[in-house]
Amino acid sequence: MLIAVNAIFLQKGKMEGYGWFVQEVFSRLATQYPAHQFLFVFDRPYDESFVFAPNCKAIVVGPPARHPGNFFYWYNIAAPAALRKYKPDVWVNPYGFCSTTTSIPQLLMVHDLAYLHYPKFIAWHQYWYYKLFTPRFIKKAKQVLTVSDFSKADIEKNFPSAVNEINTVYPAARAGFQPLSWEEKNQVKDSFSDGREYFLFVGGIHPRKNLLNLLKAFSLFKKWQKSNMKLLVAGRMAWQYEDLLEKIKTYKYREDLVLLGALEEAQLTRITASAYALVYPSFFEGFGMPILEAMQSGVPVIASNTSSMPEVGADAALYADPNDPDAIAKQMLLLYKDEKLRNFQIEKGLERAQDFSWDKTAQGVWEIILAIAK
Questions:
Q1: The domain containing residue 202 runs over which residues?
Q2: Residue partners of 111: CB distance under 8 A and separation at least 6
Q3: 209 domain-assigned
């Protein structure tokens, strides 16, 4: 069997959620199933490390697919034309888009329907592209994969006429997210927070991540608890972040706020494992990977009580209404004042993280591929 895999998010040094998913899953599948062939389809020059095994081949199909006009051309004209030469049995598209013109059976991954629930948080042209084409993608795909039962139910509710089967396959945290020793944590704190304890947020900086309410919650925490606690924010400036940056200029606790920007994997794992707690007040998530990364690192979690986040954290996290900075701050204060509770949450989080593994994820994806190829 020949499996074509959309690999446009496999980019050395620029890996984010989609890219990590493809790497973790298909590096395993290529190794576990050497009798099958894997064709990775890139939209720009690639790093040879992404050719995971001898049964893998890579091709480049331009132009780079990075905005709606190029999306349409790449998925419906350029990539299908290139794939006709290879005649794959299945084409895996793990980024929410697929071809509406190809005859190749496709596995489509839809992470979430955030564009439907929070349209004002993305550019208008992206919103209309999603709104126009997502129903067509779901209808065209032979099978649809998503990353939580919340997203599965959301897709089924909003697209009840979709004939495909919607499958939940949970991702996992990467192996580098592990607890650190006391000495290692102190080294990290000396480097990034002047030796002080810190709350941590991880994620791209855009309105859906709810950084404004996090800043309000941190202000309340500092008002209620006279401590030298800091707030570290790790993530790239994604979109619609200008208002946040303006407010930070006059933020009362600006000296206790550290914007780290996008971090290399080695830095992110150490900063995560050294945090006093992860605070993740996002309005909406299809999964919420930082929750799992923190738990696997032995760090307690405060997350939103909405969308998929209670499903991921289960009883191993504390929750708050993302619209209520007071509620978020109360959970921060609770963890700060109750060391016994904090240690309990750490243990529960480590246990919860063991429920997820990339081996399970890869096997779940493989079973769907086999079902499509029948």
A1: 182-353
A2: 17, 18, 96, 146, 147, 151, 286, 287
A3: yes
Average pLDDT over the chain, rounded to an integer: 94
CB–CB of 2/87 below 8 Å?
Answer: yes
**Could you report the per-residue pLDDT of 289-321, keeping only the tens digit for each?**
999 999 999 999 999 999 999 999 999 999 999
Asked, for residue 224, whether it belongs to a domain, the answer is: yes
Q: Are 258 and 230 in contact (CB under 8 A)?
A: yes
Q: In terms of pTM, does the model score above 0.85?
A: yes
Tokens of 301: 């979690």
In whole angstroms, what is the distance from residue 356 CA to residue 367 CA? 17
Whether 6 is covered by a domain: the verdict is yes
Indicate if 361 and 336 belong to the same structural domain.
no
pLDDT of residue 68: 67
Collapsing DSSP to helix, strand or coil, 258 comes out as: strand
For residues 149 and 253, membership in a common domain is answered with: no
Phi, psi values for residue 172, rounded to 5°: -145, 170
Does residue 114 sit in the same domain as residue 144? yes
* Burial grade of 153 (CB within 10 A; 0-12, 13-18, 19 or more): middle
Q: Is residue 123 part of a domain?
A: yes
Q: Reply yes or no on whether the pLDDT at 239 is more than 80.
A: no
